[in-house]
Design goal:
The protein is 7% helix and 36% strand. The chain has 232 residues and is mainly beta.
């Protein structure tokens, strides 16, 4: 580039050493040129730094995650709901429905028999389809904070023992998981050492022990956080 063209670029502030204002500072893009002058090629496609950054694709996430708060009370108490509203955060299983069933508005991924899901609202399902929703009062009630894993649900396995299930198979070699005994308002409602989360077979298991570790007991989860990360 000859000196006259270089002076022209500097004089008209077409060069930048720093980005002072991403909303107005321009950057030159593309390979096409609008004209040539004294042998130098000039590009005429520009956009602001801010717009360029917004146009870039978001970086691919390195993992999928499920983060939630769990609250549990009571013991083994199976119930069946044939009408009325569901309860947000409760796990339900679709049971004995016909082709008119429609639970899509309350969080179900489909309307097939034996499909488990966590209710995402307190609404009445579009249609019970002549069937019912099975649930267990003793299973943890969930406040979902983030979910990119897909369909996750909770089951009551025994006093103080609860299952965390997923439609897809867990690849335990790519999974990080954890729980804590820190509960509502930061208070310690369960000793973290007495609440365990482990992977067994096809699901995760949460066990809540009593103070002397002699047995598992109910009613120990109060907004207790859990997190599962499945890496790519």
């Amino acid at each position: 580039m000859d000196i006259l063209n270089w002076v022209y670029l500097i004089k008209n502030k077409f060069t930048r050493t720093t980005v002072e204002n991403p909303a107005t500072d321009l950057i030159v893009l593309g390979a096409d040129v609008s004209y040539q002058k004294r042998g130098d090629k000039y590009q005429n496609y520009v956009m602001t730094v801010e717009d360029f950054a917004a146009s870039l694709p978001a970086p691919a996430p390195t993992y999928k995650v499920y983060t939630a708060l769990l609250t549990q009370s009571g013991g083994d108490n199976p119930q069946s709901l044939t009408s009325g509203a569901v309860t947000k955060g409760v796990t339900y299983m679709i049971d004995g429905v016909d082709e008119t069933a429609d639970f899509s508005n309350v969080g179900a991924p489909n309307n097939n028999v034996n499909t488990w899901f966590i209710a995402t609202t307190n609404e009445v399902p579009n249609s019970y389809g002549g069937g019912s929703l099975y649930y267990n009062i003793g299973a943890p009630v969930v406040t979902v904070l983030e979910n990119t894993l897909g369909n996750v649900w909770f089951t009551f396995l025994g006093n103080g023992v609860y299952g965390i299930n997923n439609t897809n198979e867990w690849d335990i070699t790519k999974v990080w998981y954890g729980t804590s005994g820190i509960g509502d308002s930061g208070s310690i409602n369960v000793n973290p050492g007495r609440t365990t989360m482990s992977f067994e077979g096809t699901s995760f298991i949460i066990v809540c022990y009593n103070n002397d570790y002699t047995s598992a007991i109910n009613g120990q989860l109060i907004n207790t956080p859990i997190e599962i990360r499945v890496y790519n």
